[in-house]
Specification:
630 residues, alpha+beta, Transferase(Phosphotransferase), domain 1, Trypsin Inhibitor V, Chain A, 5-stranded antiparallel sheet, 3-stranded antiparallel sheet, transmembrane, protein serine kinase activity, ATP binding
């Protein structure tokens, strides 16, 4: 696995852990440049298509969990036969490692860790996710003491693999709830039991049940009473001892019913508040058959109780007058009536109450309200254990525990699972994203990529998604296909260049633009007015050539410009002429001296423009003609 790039971004660097179903690697996310943990499903499970489907679906659902005490799930993917989950990388130790190092974790620290675990499980339960594999191996503790619960979703996906048909979950047998071990109905209270076992191990340094085989351990969960942790560690506070014992009750109805309830009591212990975890002593108020009580009998202590017959002969007989005898007789008769009534009531109740059984009706497929009425008509309790997505209409009973036809005592619970309707999910928005990333997002959402088509686009870059079907946020079934249209970039078109020679610049420009070309003008000045009528004299791209649409064609044409005025002597007139100036025009118009200065003889010292001899230019008048300055 090391050296294989997963999803074109995740590179496994080293193996950091292994469980019954998967191997965990520390990896680098090259897209976001960060460390992540990649959990790769083992090959034997990857060949089970049903397991892989559940693995992906539940992991995707777990990705929606957001809690500081839950390891974040970033991505879920498949590459060839490799199925993997990308998770937050947590630097620290597992709780199992900490227990091995410390043997017994102090009660204060146990409470602190347990509160954080309970918060994580509470978040999962609110989102209808049962962890089902709470154990110290799946609990990470950072160096800062932050607890992170991991493996959400994978445990739920593995519910089809039981202890009898796979040895890959045997390591969890120490933390199984009795209902898990029996393979019966499992609800949120199974996580409460497992957390109780984890806390038991933290404070005692050992699990409550151990044996050579997982089956033997499972039987102990079902049959054997738990040794109170306080008997193994006298430093465990009584309140914590009672809390753990309540959490690991074998019957779910006797445990904490919600993680919120357990969390409240954990916080009370943390704050040194008193718990109200008293056991109900039902025997004191139980209806019973007993002898009439003689109002004159007195018991000085408990040791006398039950030995009246032995003491009867030793006690002096009290002397009673007739009035007292009459009173005693009346009281005795009254008590006898009460006893007879109690006995009659007891037998009537036994015959028509507790001993009466009822068959669980067949309610699978019925609407919840109808099923509830039918169950209650049989004097049974209708209890909604969970709600799950299914292809059955919302509100329909999809499972029932015990099964229909099972005979149970009246007032027993009939637990059901109610359908939440079709398993639908929102389609992610991948428009404007490159194709490979869009595929990963769709697959990670539990959907599949459908048909991919391509078309040109002037607005969407090549390789990016132009549109999708179904559209973003549409509700679809798990595994539905998402069709994509991908951009090929701007389409390149070729056009034929028309011949615009001799046409006016206006007409020529219109013709070229209509052909899909761009125009640049190149006017040339001329003093020949006749050339102005020639129109376009040259085009940079020749007629009939094939060029890309939008190519620029430069048009050359003549523009008439009136020539400048000449002075009387044929030279160009300088409107800025100034007599005696260095750049002035010579009086007799021979030529202009450029910036010349007068020499001793009055000749101009600069070169003369336009050639030829001329009078001294720029100097004082000289009766003798000057020569051209060099």
């Amino acid at each position: 696995m090391i050296g294989i790039m997963l999803g074109n971004r995740y590179e496994p660097l080293e193996k950091i852990g292994e469980g019954g179903m998967a191997v965990v690697y520390r990896a680098t996310d090259h897209l976001l440049n960060r460390n992540v943990a990649v959990k790769v499903l083992k090959e034997q499970f990857s060949s089970d298509s049903e397991f892989v489907q559940k693995f992906k679906r539940e992991a995707t659902a777990a990705a929606s969990l957001s809690d500081n005490n839950i390891v974040n799930i970033y991505d879920v993917g498949t590459q060839d036969d490799i199925n993997y989950i990308v998770m937050e990388y947590v630097s620290g130790k597992t709780l199992k490692q900490i227990i091995k190092e410390e043997v017994r974790i102090p009660s204060e620290k146990t409470i602190e860790i347990a509160i954080q675990i309970a918060k994580a499980i509470k978040c999962a339960h609110k989102n209808n996710i049962i962890h089902r594999d709470i154990k110290p191996h799946n609990i990470l503790v950072t160096e800062d003491g932050i607890v992170k619960v991991t493996d959400f979703g994978i445990a739920k996906a593995s519910n089809s693999v039981t202890i009898t048909n796979s040895n890959k979950i045997m390591g969890s047998a120490h933390y199984f709830s009795p209902e898990q071990a029996k393979g019966s109905f499992v609800d949120f209270r199974t996580d409460i039991y497992s957390l109780g076992i984890v806390m038991y191990e933290m404070v005692t340094g050992r699990v409550p049940y151990d044996a050579e085989s997982p089956v033997s351990i499972a039987l102990k969960h079902i049959q054997e009473p738990v040794v109170p942790p306080i008997k193994l560690n006298e430093n465990v506070p009584e309140s914590l001892n009672k809390l753990i014992l309540k959490a690991v009750e074998k019957e779910p109805i006797k445990r904490y019913q919600t993680m919120e309830d357990m969390l409240v009591d954990l916080k009370k212990i943390e704050n040194n508040q008193k718990l109200n975890l008293t056991e109900d002593d039902l025997n004191d108020d139980m209806t019973r058959i007993m002898d009439p009580v003689d109002v004159n009998d007195s018991y000085n202590n408990e040791e006398d109780y039950g030995y009246e017959d032995e003491l009867e002969d030793k006690k002096p007989k009290p002397v009673l007058d007739s009035k007292k005898k009459k009173t005693i007789l009346i009281v005795a008769l009254f008590m006898l009536v009460i006893v007879i009534g109690a006995v009659s009531g007891y037998f009537a109740f036994s015959k028509h109450g507790n001993s009466v059984e009822a068959a669980v009706p067949n309610i699978v497929g019925m609407k919840q309200d109808e099923a509830k009425k039918l169950v209650e008509s049989k004097k049974l309790n209708f209890v909604v254990g969970a709600k799950e997505k299914s292809d059955k209409p919302e509100g329909t009973v999809i499972e029932c525990f015990p099964k229909a036809g099972t005979k149970v005592k009246v007032n027993s619970d009939v637990r059901v699972i109610i359908s939440e309707g079709t398993d639908t999910m929102g389609v992610p928005n991948v428009v404007g994203i490159d194709l490979n990333t869009a595929k990963n997002i769709i697959s990670s959402s539990g959907l599949s990529v459908g048909n991919i088509s391509y078309r040109y686009s002037d607005t969407v870059s090549q390789g990016q998604v132009i549109s999708q079907d179904p559209e973003a946020d549409s509700k679809v079934k798990d595994g539905a296909k998402v069709n994509l249209v991908v951009s090929k970039g701007a389409e390149v078109k070729y056009v034929t260049v028309p011949d615009v020679s001799g046409r006016s610049i206006g007409d020529a420009e219109a013709i070229l633009k209509n052909a899909g070309l761009r125009v640049a003008q190149n006017p040339v000045e001329t003093s020949d007015k006749t050339k102005e009528n020639l129109g376009v004299t040259n085009q940079s791209v020749g007629a009939s050539q094939q060029v890309k649409e939008g190519t620029t064609v430069t048009l050359t044409y003549y523009v008439y410009k009136e020539p400048e005025n000449k002075d009387d002597n044929g030279g160009s007139q300088n409107n800025n002429t100034e007599e005696n100036s260095g750049n002035g025009t010579g009086e007799n118009g021979g030529g202009q001296n450029s910036g010349g200065q007068q020499n001793e003889n009055g000749n101009g010292g600069g070169s003369q423009n336009n050639g030829g001899s001329g009078n001294n230019s720029g100097g004082d008048k000289n009766p003798n003609p000057g020569t051209t300055g060099n």
